[in-house]
UniProtKB/TrEMBL annotation:
This is Sporulation protein YjcZ. The keyword Ubl conjugation does not apply. Belongs to the SscA family. It comes from the Bacteria. InterPro entries: YjcZ-like (IPR010070). It comes from Bacillus cereus. One of its GO terms (cellular component) is membrane.
């Protein structure tokens, strides 16, 4: 695994996933404590 091109896409997916979790929790009433 090379961290040149694939790592940027992986980090971007992680950021988007975290944003979805935070937005989803705020919309659903703070299921995970947010």
């Amino acid at each position: 695994m090379s961290y040149d091109g694939s790592y940027g896409d992986f980090a971007l997916l992680i950021v988007l996933f975290i944003q979805l979790i935070i937005i989803g929790c705020s919309c659903w009433g703070g299921g995970f404590g947010y």
